[in-house]
Amino acid sequence: MLPESGQILGGSAAVGHNQRVPDPELVAHVAGTTGLSEGEAARVVGDVLAHYREPLDEYVRRRHSRLQLHGARNPEIYRTIAAELAERLVAAPELSERQLRRIIYG
User: Fold this and answer.
1) Phi, psi values for residue 20, rounded to 5°
2) Model-level pTM greater than 0.85?
């Protein structure tokens, strides 16, 4: 029997970023459709969930830095970040250019 979602597995290898077992049904689906073991699938699901748990302000700052590093200028960066936020699995609220600047520069 699989543990309830969020339970900690005793004595097993690390699963995800915080030792919590991701949704067992999702893990079983990923394992069944990819050929990964349940442990590997749990780590993949944990990594994906951790990616989407990144706080909005951290995401905006990280993307701004990366886009700036690749030569993009702020007006283009703001449009890109706004578009990316709208496309995320759980879309962030629509942010104005001013709100994005305030997140980035304080």
Assistant:
1) -85, 145
2) no
